[in-house]
Amino acid sequence: MEFTASQIAGILEGEVEGNPEIAVHKLSKIEEGEAGSLTFLANPKYTPYLYRTEASIIIVNKDFTPEQSVKPTLIKVDDAYKSFSKLLEYYNQVKNNKLGIEEPSFISETAQYGEGFYLGAFSYLGNNVKIGDNVKIFPNVYIGDNVTIGDNSQVFAGAKIYSESIIGEGCVIHSGAILGADGFGFTPDEKGEFTKVPQTGNVILEDNVDVGAGTTIDRATLGSTVLRRGVKLDNQIQIAHNVEIGEHTVIAAQTGIAGSTKIGKHCMIGGQVGIVGHIIIGDRVKIQAQTGVGRNVKDDEVLQGSPALNYGDYNKSYVHFRNLPKLVSRIEDLEKNNGES
Q1: Domains and CATH numbers, the chain
Q2: Reported pTM
Q3: What φ, ψ does residue 272 adopt, rounded to 5°?
Q4: Of 241, 248, 266, 278, which is the active-site residue?
Protein backbone atom coordinates (compact mmCIF):
# COMPACT_ATOMS: atom_id res chain seq x y z
CA MET A 1 0.00 0.00 0.00
CA GLU A 2 1.17 3.51 -0.79
CA PHE A 3 0.54 6.86 0.87
CA THR A 4 1.45 10.33 -0.38
CA ALA A 5 2.97 13.05 1.77
CA SER A 6 -0.29 14.99 1.66
CA GLN A 7 -2.28 11.95 2.83
CA ILE A 8 0.13 11.35 5.71
CA ALA A 9 0.06 15.03 6.68
CA GLY A 10 -3.73 14.79 6.79
CA ILE A 11 -3.60 11.83 9.16
CA LEU A 12 -1.08 13.58 11.41
CA GLU A 13 -2.46 17.12 11.07
CA GLY A 14 0.97 18.20 9.85
CA GLU A 15 2.41 20.60 7.27
CA VAL A 16 4.19 19.42 4.11
CA GLU A 17 7.49 21.05 3.17
CA GLY A 18 8.51 19.69 -0.22
CA ASN A 19 6.68 17.53 -2.75
CA PRO A 20 3.16 16.75 -1.42
CA GLU A 21 2.60 14.03 -4.06
CA ILE A 22 5.69 11.93 -3.33
CA ALA A 23 4.61 8.45 -2.19
CA VAL A 24 6.00 5.91 0.25
CA HIS A 25 5.23 2.23 0.73
CA LYS A 26 7.32 1.27 3.76
CA LEU A 27 8.75 2.56 7.05
CA SER A 28 12.41 2.74 8.02
CA LYS A 29 14.92 4.05 10.54
CA ILE A 30 16.42 7.35 9.43
CA GLU A 31 19.95 5.88 9.16
CA GLU A 32 18.63 3.06 6.93
CA GLY A 33 16.20 5.10 4.82
CA GLU A 34 15.69 4.10 1.18
CA ALA A 35 13.71 5.61 -1.67
CA GLY A 36 10.02 4.97 -1.10
CA SER A 37 10.35 4.84 2.70
CA LEU A 38 9.11 7.12 5.47
CA THR A 39 11.02 7.84 8.69
CA PHE A 40 11.15 10.43 11.47
CA LEU A 41 13.61 12.63 13.37
CA ALA A 42 12.97 13.19 17.09
CA ASN A 43 16.39 12.77 18.72
CA PRO A 44 18.81 15.60 17.78
CA LYS A 45 21.80 13.23 17.70
CA TYR A 46 20.33 11.66 14.55
CA THR A 47 20.17 15.01 12.73
CA PRO A 48 23.25 14.31 10.52
CA TYR A 49 21.36 11.41 8.92
CA LEU A 50 18.70 13.85 7.73
CA TYR A 51 21.10 15.28 5.17
CA ARG A 52 22.25 11.96 3.71
CA THR A 53 19.31 9.57 4.09
CA GLU A 54 17.61 8.24 0.96
CA ALA A 55 14.18 8.20 2.65
CA SER A 56 11.46 9.94 0.64
CA ILE A 57 9.57 11.50 3.57
CA ILE A 58 10.72 12.49 7.07
CA ILE A 59 8.50 13.54 9.97
CA VAL A 60 10.09 16.33 12.02
CA ASN A 61 9.09 18.74 14.78
CA LYS A 62 7.59 22.08 13.68
CA ASP A 63 10.41 23.98 15.37
CA PHE A 64 13.10 22.11 13.39
CA THR A 65 15.05 24.29 10.95
CA PRO A 66 17.50 22.53 8.58
CA GLU A 67 21.03 23.91 8.52
CA GLN A 68 21.57 22.80 4.92
CA SER A 69 19.51 21.63 1.95
CA VAL A 70 17.34 18.56 2.51
CA LYS A 71 16.46 16.11 -0.26
CA PRO A 72 13.44 14.33 1.35
CA THR A 73 10.01 15.88 1.74
CA LEU A 74 9.40 16.98 5.34
CA ILE A 75 6.17 16.71 7.30
CA LYS A 76 6.24 19.10 10.25
CA VAL A 77 4.22 18.18 13.35
CA ASP A 78 4.03 19.18 17.00
CA ASP A 79 5.76 15.99 18.22
CA ALA A 80 7.58 13.83 15.68
CA TYR A 81 7.91 10.80 17.95
CA LYS A 82 4.23 10.73 18.93
CA SER A 83 3.17 11.34 15.34
CA PHE A 84 5.31 8.47 14.05
CA SER A 85 3.83 6.22 16.75
CA LYS A 86 0.35 7.27 15.64
CA LEU A 87 1.29 6.44 12.06
CA LEU A 88 2.57 3.00 13.12
CA GLU A 89 -0.74 2.36 14.84
CA TYR A 90 -2.65 3.46 11.73
CA TYR A 91 -0.41 1.27 9.54
CA ASN A 92 -1.10 -1.77 11.72
CA GLN A 93 -4.83 -1.11 11.62
CA VAL A 94 -4.79 -1.02 7.83
CA LYS A 95 -2.50 -4.04 7.55
CA ASN A 96 -4.58 -6.15 9.96
CA ASN A 97 -7.97 -5.03 8.66
CA LYS A 98 -8.92 -8.44 7.30
CA LEU A 99 -12.52 -9.49 6.92
CA GLY A 100 -14.44 -12.72 6.56
CA ILE A 101 -14.17 -16.31 7.70
CA GLU A 102 -11.44 -18.49 6.25
CA GLU A 103 -11.80 -22.22 5.73
CA PRO A 104 -11.28 -24.64 7.26
CA SER A 105 -12.47 -23.34 10.62
CA PHE A 106 -15.09 -24.37 13.17
CA ILE A 107 -17.80 -22.09 14.53
CA SER A 108 -20.36 -23.47 16.96
CA GLU A 109 -23.99 -22.93 15.98
CA THR A 110 -24.46 -21.01 19.25
CA ALA A 111 -21.50 -18.67 18.71
CA GLN A 112 -22.20 -15.02 17.85
CA TYR A 113 -20.01 -12.39 16.22
CA GLY A 114 -20.45 -8.78 15.14
CA GLU A 115 -19.71 -6.71 12.05
CA GLY A 116 -16.21 -6.43 10.60
CA PHE A 117 -15.29 -9.88 11.93
CA TYR A 118 -12.26 -11.85 10.71
CA LEU A 119 -11.54 -15.49 11.59
CA GLY A 120 -8.35 -17.07 10.28
CA ALA A 121 -8.12 -20.62 9.00
CA PHE A 122 -7.91 -23.58 11.42
CA SER A 123 -9.50 -21.59 14.25
CA TYR A 124 -12.18 -22.83 16.65
CA LEU A 125 -15.09 -20.97 18.27
CA GLY A 126 -16.87 -22.92 21.03
CA ASN A 127 -20.42 -22.91 22.31
CA ASN A 128 -22.01 -19.61 23.34
CA VAL A 129 -19.00 -17.54 22.34
CA LYS A 130 -19.90 -13.84 22.00
CA ILE A 131 -17.66 -11.64 19.88
CA GLY A 132 -18.13 -7.90 19.30
CA ASP A 133 -17.62 -5.72 16.24
CA ASN A 134 -14.33 -5.42 14.33
CA VAL A 135 -12.67 -8.30 16.17
CA LYS A 136 -9.78 -9.99 14.34
CA ILE A 137 -8.91 -13.60 15.20
CA PHE A 138 -5.92 -14.91 13.27
CA PRO A 139 -5.24 -18.54 12.21
CA ASN A 140 -4.91 -21.45 14.64
CA VAL A 141 -6.67 -19.72 17.54
CA TYR A 142 -8.77 -21.68 20.04
CA ILE A 143 -11.70 -19.91 21.73
CA GLY A 144 -13.42 -22.08 24.36
CA ASP A 145 -17.07 -22.20 25.41
CA ASN A 146 -18.76 -19.13 26.88
CA VAL A 147 -15.89 -16.76 26.05
CA THR A 148 -16.73 -13.09 25.49
CA ILE A 149 -14.51 -10.78 23.40
CA GLY A 150 -15.25 -7.04 23.17
CA ASP A 151 -15.20 -4.71 20.16
CA ASN A 152 -11.94 -3.96 18.32
CA SER A 153 -9.89 -6.66 20.01
CA GLN A 154 -7.26 -8.77 18.23
CA VAL A 155 -6.17 -12.34 18.94
CA PHE A 156 -3.04 -13.32 17.03
CA ALA A 157 -2.12 -16.71 15.59
CA GLY A 158 -1.86 -19.66 17.92
CA ALA A 159 -3.32 -18.05 21.03
CA LYS A 160 -5.57 -20.16 23.27
CA ILE A 161 -8.45 -18.72 25.30
CA TYR A 162 -10.05 -21.24 27.63
CA SER A 163 -13.74 -21.37 28.52
CA GLU A 164 -15.50 -18.64 30.52
CA SER A 165 -12.79 -16.03 29.87
CA ILE A 166 -13.96 -12.43 29.41
CA ILE A 167 -11.93 -10.15 27.13
CA GLY A 168 -12.74 -6.41 27.03
CA GLU A 169 -12.68 -3.91 24.17
CA GLY A 170 -9.48 -2.94 22.38
CA CYS A 171 -7.44 -5.82 23.81
CA VAL A 172 -4.47 -7.40 22.02
CA ILE A 173 -3.51 -11.01 22.68
CA HIS A 174 -0.32 -12.07 20.93
CA SER A 175 0.72 -15.40 19.47
CA GLY A 176 1.12 -18.33 21.83
CA ALA A 177 -0.53 -16.62 24.79
CA ILE A 178 -2.74 -18.86 26.92
CA LEU A 179 -5.59 -17.41 28.97
CA GLY A 180 -7.58 -19.48 31.42
CA ALA A 181 -5.48 -22.62 31.89
CA ASP A 182 -5.81 -24.21 35.33
CA GLY A 183 -4.07 -22.53 38.22
CA PHE A 184 -1.34 -24.48 40.01
CA GLY A 185 -3.56 -25.92 42.72
CA PHE A 186 -2.70 -29.21 44.44
CA THR A 187 -3.12 -30.45 48.00
CA PRO A 188 -1.06 -33.19 49.69
CA ASP A 189 -2.78 -36.19 51.26
CA GLU A 190 -1.68 -38.35 54.18
CA LYS A 191 0.60 -40.35 51.84
CA GLY A 192 2.38 -37.23 50.65
CA GLU A 193 0.78 -37.49 47.23
CA PHE A 194 -0.75 -34.44 45.58
CA THR A 195 -4.37 -34.20 44.55
CA LYS A 196 -5.55 -31.58 42.10
CA VAL A 197 -7.83 -28.84 43.41
CA PRO A 198 -10.46 -28.06 40.72
CA GLN A 199 -9.99 -24.61 39.19
CA THR A 200 -13.52 -23.35 38.56
CA GLY A 201 -13.03 -19.59 38.10
CA ASN A 202 -12.12 -17.58 35.02
CA VAL A 203 -9.89 -14.84 33.60
CA ILE A 204 -11.11 -11.28 33.03
CA LEU A 205 -9.26 -8.70 30.94
CA GLU A 206 -10.76 -5.23 31.09
CA ASP A 207 -10.49 -2.81 28.15
CA ASN A 208 -7.22 -2.01 26.34
CA VAL A 209 -5.14 -4.79 27.89
CA ASP A 210 -2.13 -6.11 25.93
CA VAL A 211 -0.88 -9.67 26.50
CA GLY A 212 2.53 -10.53 25.05
CA ALA A 213 3.53 -13.62 23.10
CA GLY A 214 3.90 -16.78 25.15
CA THR A 215 2.39 -15.21 28.27
CA THR A 216 0.14 -17.37 30.44
CA ILE A 217 -2.69 -16.17 32.68
CA ASP A 218 -4.28 -18.86 34.87
CA ARG A 219 -7.96 -19.08 35.70
CA ALA A 220 -8.95 -18.55 39.33
CA THR A 221 -9.65 -21.39 41.72
CA LEU A 222 -12.84 -19.52 42.66
CA GLY A 223 -13.82 -16.10 41.34
CA SER A 224 -11.59 -14.42 38.75
CA THR A 225 -8.02 -13.61 37.82
CA VAL A 226 -8.36 -9.95 36.81
CA LEU A 227 -6.26 -7.58 34.72
CA ARG A 228 -7.69 -4.08 35.00
CA ARG A 229 -8.01 -1.50 32.27
CA GLY A 230 -4.84 -0.58 30.37
CA VAL A 231 -2.53 -3.28 31.78
CA LYS A 232 0.38 -4.08 29.45
CA LEU A 233 2.19 -7.42 29.66
CA ASP A 234 5.42 -8.26 27.84
CA ASN A 235 6.24 -11.71 26.44
CA GLN A 236 6.68 -14.87 28.53
CA ILE A 237 5.07 -13.74 31.77
CA GLN A 238 3.30 -16.06 34.22
CA ILE A 239 0.22 -14.74 36.05
CA ALA A 240 -1.10 -17.28 38.56
CA HIS A 241 -4.64 -17.97 39.73
CA ASN A 242 -6.62 -15.23 41.49
CA VAL A 243 -4.01 -12.53 40.84
CA GLU A 244 -5.36 -9.02 40.37
CA ILE A 245 -3.37 -6.34 38.51
CA GLY A 246 -4.43 -2.69 38.77
CA GLU A 247 -5.05 -0.21 35.98
CA HIS A 248 -2.20 0.84 33.67
CA THR A 249 0.42 -1.35 35.31
CA VAL A 250 3.20 -2.53 32.96
CA ILE A 251 5.23 -5.73 33.42
CA ALA A 252 8.37 -6.79 31.51
CA ALA A 253 9.29 -10.25 30.24
CA GLN A 254 9.86 -13.40 32.32
CA THR A 255 8.20 -12.05 35.43
CA GLY A 256 6.26 -14.53 37.56
CA ILE A 257 3.46 -13.61 39.96
CA ALA A 258 2.22 -16.28 42.37
CA GLY A 259 -1.40 -16.90 43.30
CA SER A 260 -3.76 -14.42 44.97
CA THR A 261 -1.35 -11.48 44.94
CA LYS A 262 -2.88 -8.04 44.37
CA ILE A 263 -0.91 -5.41 42.44
CA GLY A 264 -1.96 -1.75 42.38
CA LYS A 265 -2.36 0.90 39.70
CA HIS A 266 0.39 2.46 37.57
CA CYS A 267 3.10 0.06 38.75
CA MET A 268 6.22 -0.63 36.68
CA ILE A 269 7.71 -4.12 37.05
CA GLY A 270 11.01 -5.05 35.37
CA GLY A 271 12.05 -8.29 33.72
CA GLN A 272 12.59 -11.55 35.62
CA VAL A 273 10.91 -10.29 38.76
CA GLY A 274 9.55 -12.96 41.09
CA ILE A 275 6.58 -12.11 43.33
CA VAL A 276 5.28 -14.48 46.01
CA GLY A 277 1.62 -15.23 46.52
CA HIS A 278 -0.94 -13.71 48.87
CA ILE A 279 0.68 -10.27 49.21
CA ILE A 280 -0.50 -6.76 48.37
CA ILE A 281 1.58 -4.36 46.27
CA GLY A 282 0.47 -0.73 46.36
CA ASP A 283 0.00 1.87 43.64
CA ARG A 284 2.85 3.42 41.58
CA VAL A 285 5.38 0.87 42.83
CA LYS A 286 8.55 0.39 40.76
CA ILE A 287 10.32 -2.96 40.91
CA GLN A 288 13.74 -3.28 39.27
CA ALA A 289 14.69 -6.26 37.10
CA GLN A 290 15.48 -9.60 38.81
CA THR A 291 14.02 -8.47 42.11
CA GLY A 292 12.40 -11.01 44.42
CA VAL A 293 9.39 -9.63 46.31
CA GLY A 294 8.30 -11.56 49.39
CA ARG A 295 6.38 -8.98 51.43
CA ASN A 296 3.60 -6.43 51.17
CA VAL A 297 4.71 -3.25 49.42
CA LYS A 298 3.43 0.26 50.19
CA ASP A 299 2.43 2.86 47.62
CA ASP A 300 5.30 4.55 45.72
CA GLU A 301 8.04 2.21 46.94
CA VAL A 302 10.97 1.44 44.61
CA LEU A 303 12.50 -2.02 45.12
CA GLN A 304 15.59 -3.90 44.04
CA GLY A 305 17.41 -7.07 45.08
CA SER A 306 16.43 -10.54 46.25
CA PRO A 307 14.95 -10.45 48.78
CA ALA A 308 13.85 -6.96 47.77
CA LEU A 309 15.27 -3.90 49.51
CA ASN A 310 14.34 -0.27 49.21
CA TYR A 311 16.07 0.95 46.02
CA GLY A 312 18.19 3.57 47.82
CA ASP A 313 19.24 1.13 50.56
CA TYR A 314 20.17 -1.46 47.92
CA ASN A 315 22.43 0.98 46.08
CA LYS A 316 24.17 2.02 49.30
CA SER A 317 24.67 -1.61 50.28
CA TYR A 318 25.95 -2.54 46.84
CA VAL A 319 28.91 -0.16 47.30
CA HIS A 320 29.94 -2.35 50.24
CA PHE A 321 29.27 -5.57 48.30
CA ARG A 322 31.74 -4.46 45.63
CA ASN A 323 34.35 -3.55 48.25
CA LEU A 324 34.11 -6.81 50.20
CA PRO A 325 37.38 -8.31 48.79
CA LYS A 326 39.29 -5.15 49.78
CA LEU A 327 37.68 -5.09 53.22
CA VAL A 328 38.53 -8.76 53.81
CA SER A 329 42.12 -8.14 52.74
CA ARG A 330 42.40 -5.19 55.15
CA ILE A 331 40.98 -7.24 58.01
CA GLU A 332 43.45 -10.05 57.31
CA ASP A 333 46.33 -7.56 57.26
CA LEU A 334 45.19 -6.07 60.59
CA GLU A 335 44.90 -9.50 62.17
CA LYS A 336 48.34 -10.48 60.84
CA ASN A 337 49.92 -7.24 62.16
CA ASN A 338 48.24 -7.66 65.55
CA GLY A 339 49.55 -11.20 65.72
CA GLU A 340 53.11 -10.13 65.00
CA SER A 341 52.96 -7.39 67.61
Answers
A1: 3-95 (3.40.1390.10), 101-311 (2.160.10.10)
A2: 0.82
A3: 60, 30
A4: 241
